[in-house]
């Protein structure tokens, strides 16, 4: 039966007159008359007991005690709709004109001003402020009666115990059965304990049902090629290198981008821009031709040696990425141990880096800051032999503000004169005759083009379309007509879930419970969250000890990695572990010390147990984490590019992968079009999930039992939060930082992620909070400076696409700050650190308060 949401609180009373049995069936007027009769002639007086006849009108209704209703501040939503939104005047009825108690029905409610119009007919009373005239029936249960929406057939009331009405803190204990009543009784004054399943806005989009016929699974777009001719040898690699790839690295054939890049870079000495989707093997696409040409110089005993000079410099934006590239190079060079690679990335003393440089190196992997530092201060670092300068993850290099350093490095390398014939008896003719710059990126954003202008000359644009091997492209740079849009791997199964704010946390728990219900279905999952404080809260919450009832079963848990560094970043994921499948939880964000980040990431990478990584975007770029089969974007990304990098952590090198993004009902549903633009088949490639579906699958049970289980789970987490000042503060911090991070979406997308429509009260529930949002003040977090008026101006400007960055609303500044924060601990070198600090000061006055990296 459809639910029209008409709710009444049926409350028990000790007075015998109320203990009469329920009158069921028939029209409501008939039932009403019957009940009146049952109560006898004085029933109205009893109901009106307590009326103050002091000349003032007394009001009844949901918010009677607050009448006349207070004007609502923008940020003062409560988790309880009844409290939160001042209802229209007609809902407040002077008591003298009040209908008989039984007749009390809530009048039309105006939809809240700042969120999408929702089903008007779904209402509930604040139990603590129950209208005096409410009807009570036996059993002590507060029951919701719903009627068929279409027919309004009041003859067949549907009493549904599991759907709980909202409760404010003052309800007498025992008024409502099930878990809610205990919570209400225990709630402190001013707290709000709200029901999960009432007052949720519904989706505005009409979702098409997926077609009946089974769709052909999409062919992987970043897999090694299967064409017989596509062997490494056919591309021009030596047998030695090809055999090493095949036997020691398990790579039998190149990927499409490798095919295009190797062919080009072995025979031609032009600059190159390599653009290919995530997980397509770009690292080897530039490393293989470099190593091949260094190998070709070595004939018999005449080999290059570590002190022959630096032939290639590879720049990457973060230490993690540098280490990852160094790892791939190290494996590759096992077939040519006389070629030496090393890193200069900070994190250890400059002296030891200098010592390594002095010993000699042929391929140097560096972060721009640290390399600039060494170029200025380390005499032994000579760049005269450098033939290749590779800029990996170009967009990230620019985002982190390395433009100046890169300019300096490019200048330094170009200035030094190049030796091209012989070097200590070694034939140099196999090497490029000129210096080559290679720029790599998965996206072609404006900032990448800017980096291209700084570093490339007459470059070729190398792209690959594996669907049509004839079109493996080597294009003149700047050929806009042929430019391929960056897309997600075709085999990635992308879904989105439209989940109301209140249900977010419990839905995430449900998804993870289901994903790890059986051993082997999902091995590794990554959950992306917008800010560090929120990561910390979710990590602690998901790893909290199970409640005593569950604790009776002894669950065998795998041993966690030992070590000081990871003791606070790795824990058992108790929430979604089952007795047959224990899950290990990791957390990662830019505010953790570098050595902790490295150790945590290593543990996640090497783990053979099922595990989950909860992290910020710090783990979204370039990291090659093996066996990640599920990516959940719990908080939507800050830009479409970020989304593609995040989901690119799965479905790598032709493997399968799933991704799910959470969206709120309303404006956020527009994001579906952006998701669809990453796929050839558009929206058909996407799967739609509702919160109800996800909850039902995760919490199980028969009928609507999942609702009760979900409610129990949510209440348990709320208790856990309330009972400890530490976790309460953690939840509040997470909540506040989340809201601030929400304001930092790129201007183009801010009409989708619109602060105006963000329901702060419902969002508080997703952080297991019972506070009214306006009252959440966390020490150390300054309140946002933007006024409501500022926000509207910003929203209007964003809509017109004319946001002025210099006079930007806080969102823009905070977004910049987020980018800087994100990798702050990664950026190395004293100069780099000074530069970052300076930029932080320039960009924001709120640097220290804001912890969303
Ligand atoms: N020819 C190949 N055959 C099989 N696996 C490969 C091949 N080339 C690369 N891989 C694997 O593919 C994965 C992705 O490679 P890589 O990290 O270089 O991708 P990428 O294009 O740089 O991705 P991103 O844009 O996310 O940084 C790695 O695990 C790598 O070992």
Automatic annotation (TrEMBL):
The Helicase C-terminal domain sits at 491-694
UniProt xrefs under CDD domains: DEADc_DDX31 (cd17949), SF2_C_DEAD (cd18787)
What do the Gene Ontology cellular component annotations say? nucleolus
Family membership noted in the UniProt record: Belongs to the DEAD box helicase family.
SUPFAM superfamilies found in the cross-reference section? P-loop containing nucleoside triphosphate hydrolases
Catalytic reaction annotation:
ATP + H2O = ADP + phosphate + H(+)
Instruction: Give the protein's recorded name.
Output: ATP-dependent RNA helicase
**Which Pfam families does its entry note?**
CTE_SPB4, DEAD, Helicase_C
Q: Which SMART domains match?
A: DEXDc (SM00487), DUF4217 (SM01178), HELICc (SM00490)
Entry comment, domain topic: The Q motif is unique to and characteristic of the DEAD box family of RNA helicases and controls ATP binding and hydrolysis.
Per UniProt, the enzyme's principal EC class comes to hydrolase
The alphabetized UniProt keywords are:
ATP-binding, Helicase, Hydrolase, Nucleotide-binding, Nucleus, Ribosome biogenesis, RNA-binding, rRNA processing
């Amino acid at each position: 039966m459809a639910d029209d949401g008409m709710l009444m609180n049926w409350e028990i009373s000790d007075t015998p007159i109320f203990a009469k049995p329920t009158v069921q069936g028939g029209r409501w007027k008939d039932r009403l008359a019957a009940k009146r009769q049952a109560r006898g002639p004085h029933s109205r007086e009893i109901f009106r007991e307590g009326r103050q006849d002091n000349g003032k009108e007394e009001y009844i209704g949901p918010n009677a005690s607050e009448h006349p209703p207070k004007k609502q501040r923008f940020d003062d939503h409560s988790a309880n709709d009844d409290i939160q939104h001042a209802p229209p005047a007609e809902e407040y009825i002077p008591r003298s004109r009040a209908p008989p108690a039984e007749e009390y029905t809530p009048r039309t409610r105006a939809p809240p001003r700042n969120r999408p119009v929702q089903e008007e007919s779904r209402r509930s009373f604040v139990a603590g402020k129950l209208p005096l005239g409410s009807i009570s029936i036996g059993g002590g249960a507060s029951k919701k009666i719903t009627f068929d929406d279409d027919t309004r057939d009041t003859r067949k009331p549907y009493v549904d115990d599991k759907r709980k009405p909202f409760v404010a803190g003052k309800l007498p204990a025992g008024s409502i059965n099930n878990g809610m009543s205990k919570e209400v009784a225990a709630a402190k004054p001013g707290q709000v304990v709200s029901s999960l399943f009432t007052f949720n806005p519904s989706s505005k989009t009409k979702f098409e049902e997926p077609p009946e016929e089974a769709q052909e699974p999409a062919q992987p777009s970043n897999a090694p090629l299967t064409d017989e001719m596509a062997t490494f040898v056919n591309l021009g690699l030596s047998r030695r290198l090809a055999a090493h790839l095949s036997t020691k690295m398990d790579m039998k054939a190149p990927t499409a981008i490798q095919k295009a890049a190797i062919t080009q870079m072995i025979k031609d000495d032009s600059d190159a821009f390599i653009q290919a989707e995530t997980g397509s093997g770009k690292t080897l696409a530039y490393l293989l031709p470099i190593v091949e040409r260094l190998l070709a110089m070595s004939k018999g005993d005449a080999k290059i040696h570590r002190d022959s000079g630096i032939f290639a410099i590879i720049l990457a934006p973060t230490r993690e990425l540098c280490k990852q590239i160094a790892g791939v190079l190290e494996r590759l060079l096992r077939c040519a141990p006389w070629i030496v690679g090393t890193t200069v990335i900070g994190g250890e003393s400059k002296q030891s880096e200098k010592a390594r440089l002095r010993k000699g190196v042929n391929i140097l992997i560096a972060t721009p800051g640290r390399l600039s530092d060494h170029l200025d201060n380390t005499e032994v670092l000579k760049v005269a032999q450098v033939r290749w300068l590779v800029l990996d993850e170009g967009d990230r290099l620019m985002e982190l503000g390395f433009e100046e350093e890169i300019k300096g490095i490019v200048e330094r390398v170009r200035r030094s004169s190049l030796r091209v014939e012989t070097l200590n008896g070694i034939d140099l003719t196999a090497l490029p005759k000129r210096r080559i710059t290679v720029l790599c990126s998965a996206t072609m954003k404006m900032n990448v083009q800017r980096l291209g202008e700084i570093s490339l000359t007459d470059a070729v644009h190398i792209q690959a379309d594996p669907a049509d091997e004839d079109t493996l492209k080597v294009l003149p740079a700047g050929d806009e007509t042929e430019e391929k849009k960056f897309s997600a791997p075709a085999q990635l199964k992308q879904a989105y879930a439209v989940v109301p704010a209140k249900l977010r946390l419990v839905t995430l728990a449900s998804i993870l419970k289901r994903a790890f219900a059986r051993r082997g279905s999902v091995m590794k999952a990554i959950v992306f969250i917008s800010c560090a404080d929120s990561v910390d809260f979710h990590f602690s919450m998901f790893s909290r000890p199970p409640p005593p009832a569950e604790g009776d079963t002894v669950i065998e848990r795998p041993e966690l990695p030992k070590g000081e560094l990871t003791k606070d970043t790795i824990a058992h994921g108790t929430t979604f572990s089952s007795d047959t499948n224990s899950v290990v939880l990791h957390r990662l964000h830019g505010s953790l010390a570098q050595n902790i980040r490295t150790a945590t990431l290593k543990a996640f990478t090497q783990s053979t147990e099922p595990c989950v990584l909860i992290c910020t975007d710090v783990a979204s770029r370039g990291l090659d984490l093996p066996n990640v089969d599920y990516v959940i974007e719990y908080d939507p990304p800050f830009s479409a590019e970020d989304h593609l990098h995040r989901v690119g952590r799965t479905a790598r090198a032709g493997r399968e992968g799933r991704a799910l993004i959470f969206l709120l009902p309303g404006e956020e549903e527009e994001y579906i079009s952006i998701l669809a633009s990453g796929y050839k088949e558009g929206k058909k490639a996407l799967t739609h999930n509702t919160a109800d579906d996800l909850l039902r699958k995760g919490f199980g049970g028969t009928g609507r039992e999942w609702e009760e289980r979900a409610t129990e789970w949510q209440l348990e987490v709320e208790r856990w939060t309330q009972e400890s000042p530490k976790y309460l503060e953690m939840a509040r911090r997470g909540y506040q930082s989340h809201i601030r991070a929400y304001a930092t979406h790129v201007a183009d997308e801010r009409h989708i992620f619109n602060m105006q429509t963000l329901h702060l009260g419902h969002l508080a529930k997703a952080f297991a909070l019972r506070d009214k949002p306006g009252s959440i003040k966390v020490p150390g977090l300054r309140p946002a400076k933007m006024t409501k008026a500022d926000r509207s101006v910003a929203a209007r400007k964003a809509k017109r696409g004319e946001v002025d960055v210099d006079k930007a609303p806080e969102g823009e500044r905070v977004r910049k700050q987020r980018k800087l924060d994100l990798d702050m601990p990664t950026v190395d070198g004293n100069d780099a650190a000074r530069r970052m600090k300076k930029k932080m000061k320039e960009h924001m006055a709120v640097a220290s308060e804001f912890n969303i990296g």
